[in-house]
Amino acid sequence: MKYKIIRILDVAGLRVFEPVVLLCYGEEPREQLKKIGLYIVIPILVMVACVIAWDLIGPRIKTRAGEVPTPAQVVTAYDGIADFHKREYTKVADYNIEGEKREAALTKTQEEIAALETDWEAIAAQCEDLLESLLAKVPAEAAAKKTEIEEGWRQLVADLKSDQATATDAARRKFAYVEGISAQFVSASLSKLSDAVTKQEQVYKKDQQARAKDLVAIAAKIQADDYKQKVAYVHQVNDHLAKTGQENDHLKSLRAELSERRGKSLPQVEDLRQQISKTGQKAEFLATRVNLLTDGNRQQKIDKAQAEMEDLKRKYAVASGPEMFGLAQQLIQREERINTIATSEFAKPPTFFDQIWTSLKCVFTGFFIATAIAIPIGVFCGMSRVFMASMTPLISLFKPVSPIVWLPIVFFIVGAFITKPDEAWVQPSFLSSAITVALCSLWPTLVNTALGVSAIDQDHLNVARVLRLGLWDRLTKIIIPSALPLIFTGLRISLGVGWMVLIAAELLSSSPGIGKFVWDMFNNGSSATFAQMFVACGFVGVIGLLLDRIMIVFQRMVSFDGAPTGL
Question: Are strands 62-63 and 66-67 parallel, antiparallel or unpaired?
């Protein structure tokens, strides 16, 4: 069993876990622990160190979208992406659900809506607690201001009662009041900071003027031929300029801090705003579910349309004369509407995981196109020196071409064949991305196939001649089987290249994949979408790793020399 497990790890390219298996079987524990520490523990510690460094350094890097998101913020962004995906597919299910399942889902959704009242009440209570904490910070000399705030709050509570406001409205209005009060506190704090910056600026300006005046006075006392004092004077001026630069840098940092704090709310207010946003999104989602489980449900629409159809049929049965023409038209239109509803699907936007699936389809489409081109050409290159010589200039010419160059050329050519994208069986952007992937990724497979075929033992080919095997038999029984290890080496490299090329191709062609997701998030430019870009980056890396592992498995399955295939 031990050797079977080790063989599986070897085929999967996971020999790094072999010491764990051997340790479990008690084989040289000290040596296995040493290998585990070297190949597993140390890499994990390095990864942890990188995450910690990211968490510490990220917030210090300022961008136009805000700070670089921390690992915790990236995890939160992923939760939002996953939640959006789940909600969209829940809407699809609600649109298609029928019978008792629909009734059960509707009942559960209504219960969740009722439970949200508790969440809104909790938010309103937090608003009151935040107001009390703000009032506690009001200085004694501002008692009138404190009384004014308290009176405003009491008036708001009275208005909410008289208006019989819902828990949602009450929470939102209370938050708006508390947010306004916190803005006043932030404004007062910024005013003090601004005054401090202005005062510091005046102090530095005064010091600089005094130093300059002293230096002028010193210069007046230096004799024209006193080079020693002149050299010393240059050092004094240099010290003055260096100190002036330090003071200006300090002022610049103070102004940057003032600019950064301007427009920001208190952390407690931001937390409440996020809670309100999250609860509001959930309430909106549940309201949409109720609609999709009632009037917006496909079966409910069909039942309603069929009931109207029956009414029209009864009217048509007793109608006569010109009235029959209008009723007949309505019957035909109603029947077409029923057929349209019965075949309709819920129009949901593509989620992040949908875009991942689209990218995978695109990269494998391009990969298979590249394989279909590269392997036959590579085989003929390996079999014929003349063919190899004729293909070498073309390979050398086109192999270095960037996908950024290929994409617009391919896009124009595809557009010439697909003149009506809305009626085409495939989107031009998808096909253009796939062909670009193929053009950029076929070269490793082609070169490795040619190398594998040309390296076949000549004795094997001589045996084929003795047995008078035809070309097809030589290809299928000797040449391709012998070259398979190197062919799969090329395929592994090609798939990795294709995955890297795909993201850039999708980003530029607006193909609905991960590249487009990253581009949309970049154009949005907010801190939330910045974190989602990091999520996309992580998924691109993980998927690329999995694709590489899959190709390693295939490569090891056809490898006959037991050579290692990957790190």
Answer: antiparallel
